[in-house]
Amino acid sequence: MGLRLKFNIVLTLVFAAGMAVSAFVSYELLQRNAKQEVLRNAGLMMETALAVRGYTVSQVKPLLEPQLQEKFLPQTVPAFAATETFNALRKKYPDFSYREALLNPTNPRNKAVEWETDIVNSFRNSGVVPEFTGERDTPVGRMLYIARPIQIKDPACLACHSVPSAAPASMIKLYGESNGFGWKHMEVVGAQVVSVPMTLPIHNANEAFKVFMGSLAAIFVVTFIVLNIMLSVMIIRPISRMSSAADQVSGGDFDVPEFSGKGKDEISVLGKSFNRMRRSLQKALKLIEK
Fold this sequence. Notes:
The protein folds into two domains: 3-11 and 213-289, Helicase, Ruva Protein, domain 3, CATH 1.10.8.500; 24-205, Beta-Lactamase (2-Layer Sandwich).
């Protein structure tokens, strides 16, 4: 097995190990960053929903309070305002969603579906847990969601949701007496759920991974070629010439030109040593012939 082949085998094994480690570390890092990006987007949507709810309670509802005696206005309900805001957003970003999922809602469109019911029950059973995050598969791809409990902390909410007789007549007229009642103070009745698609960030992370690994492979190929050229010029060729010269000298042919004495590297030192050996051998043969 030649020196060049041994060198290339070792170089390839080292590169393969380095590629494996780099692939594992970079893939995990890119996937983690993609998930963090999705979480940031979901968190921003959740905070926006809370801001819309707060704005509705503090500024919209007081202005419309006189009209509520005659006609119930859903626009004064924080959940309705937040949901409508994000429904407008979904016209441009249909994969993003915001839900105020309730087990027993006044408005039927807020009724929790199966997986949302599981989240609400998790909040109800786990005590005081401020937030849940998770992933689920959907027809449009993998989604990440953030959920926060809807808990009746303000006793004023019970004016509309305790018993039908205590609720505004205008609300009963609009939604009826069957749903949205029986709530209790400090009870978890639902969950705010923000769902954000993971498809695009994960796709971008995978593309970045491919580009990184492709670049790393290209760097290896260039390095492999350059090192082989250097190995050939600086080591293989000089050693091959010395080997050929040694064969000639061992056969009594001293017409082989001496190697250059320039340089201080190992090959140059070997060349100087070979020159001294050649001259010593030539002198010894001449003395024997005499």
